[in-house]
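Tutorial, part two.
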Amino acid sequence: MRALRIGLAQLNPTVGDLNGNRRCIGSAAAKARDQGVDLLVVPELALTGYPPEDLLLKASFARANRRALEQLATEINGLWAVIGFVDLQEDLYNAAALVGNGHVAAVYHKRYLPNYGVFDEDRYFRAGTDCPLFAFEDVRLGITICEDIWYPGGPAQWQAAAGAELVVNLSASPYHARKGLHRERMLATRAADCAVWLAYVNMVGGQDELVFDGQSLILDPSGRVVAGGRMFAEDLLVYDLDLDAVLEARLHEPRPRKLDVDLVTRPAVTHLGHIGDETPTVERVDIAAALCHHTGNVPLLPLREEHVALDDAQPRHGVWELAVERATAARNQQQGRRDDVDLEEEVYAALVLGVRDYVRKNGIGEVVIGLSGGIDSSLVAVIAVDALGKQRVHGVAMPSRYNASSSEEDARQLASALGLEFRVIAIEPVFEAFLEALEPSFAGTQPNVAEENVQARIRGSLWMALTNKFNWIALTAGNKSEMATGYATLYGDMAGGFAVLKDVPKTLVYRLARYRNTLDQSPVIPPRVLEKAPSAELRPGQKDQDSLPPYDELDSILESYVEKDWDFGHLVAAGHAPETVQKVLQLVDRAEYKRRQAPPGIKITPRAFGRDRRLPITNRYREQPEAER
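Running the prediction step on this input gives:
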């Protein structure tokens, strides 16, 4: 049996930190070497971080990334590595370097550039035109990058048809709920169709609005998952591949034989040949010969004669680690993955990681949260403590004349259960001063939303004053249901630096809060917070449902309208009352200007506001009933 030990380094790089990312990759390579890994693969653009966005428009950045790659190559010894980087040639390419023996032996350019949803790669990169098959004496390797693997007729299929035994895929695939399951099904299909070992390594960590979930996978030539990386945590996945299994699988799988592929053999080339529209040309690159251009001491990819037992047990501690382990364990239960992985476990771990990395990577010391005694701010507080530790989280209550005494009690009880610093700043004197100043202008009018929002804006000003004084950042508590309908106050409860729940619907907020209460021996979020009707408490007896439909119905409409682009008729046909649909659509359409001014927040649904859903503010198109068109 020919065995190749592969390692997938599921890393958490920081965009633009070239030296830090280089050290991170180098450390993973050293650990892999110590475990006897022959071939290490790291994520897409691991050297630059993903997505680098307009840093890519700086030629100096691309050149610095190349220098970091060359230095990294000299630091990696005793194994081969496939490293994601930016390749500046006649244009810019999203690339993977094959590194060994102290040198960059070969480079692959990503062919399929995504330009939808949160992706914008056509803005920066030229698509690759080459499809190399890398030969290490008796091993044939295909390299692909992220989007390349999502197409059934693409580089992986061409490389496999030309003889590849192993196809690796370097990925930076952002998270949304349930995406891991969808991704796994696609990879299983691709491995089985190509009858090839498929090693998929995904990035992990938070980057502004995006969270990368890891979940790297190794699949055998039948499409069976044989090894999987952790969710939302760095990992080194090591596995011994039986390369002889590829031939055995292909003897029983005739489909790859039907693909017409021209295989061209060259010892070493820089540009490996154009892939035609009808018959792909796969160039075989002899890596030993390629390295002869650098040195006469040519290492060959070693083959092992047998599998070696691996022990990857690591101690885990704390609530955050428990959340990660529960999510990963639920995903891995039974044979393969389950369809019914608990959504709460998955999303909660994503939110914690998103907050932790936003604060850590931006060099922020501590955070402040306005604790109203409501469900949203309570959930943000526990997420922040799980992400950062109680010493770095501050809670502040700002009661006014309309706040029930129970609200401050609930906020204080939550802060006590979490062990975080808690203070109270009463806004009533400030509110009275505002009303007095506005009285001449408001004379003769009835109190309305103007007076209500003054309270929210006072709170926003006080939060920001605290952040300025103590160098904190304010975490806002608005959820997706509120952001969608504009049920939020500009420069008030929207004020802050990071919107933790920006993409979390209200109904999911409750589910996450109940889930979080199961992670401790006693609930940290007071039961009364989960039971009382949600209210902004800006006027006497106010309830959210005075202005909005019930959240169960509202969130159902919002999911279909915002994430699926259903029209009015489709929503009514689904069972929603026409007057409710019309009201919700009007609220969503009119609130675009507010959303443009909201802080960034963590994407957890298939289509989030901001990078994902981009509509013009100045826009007269409105969904209407058929009869009114």
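Residues 553 and 605 are 18 Å apart (CA to CA). In part three we will examine how such features are distributed along the chain.
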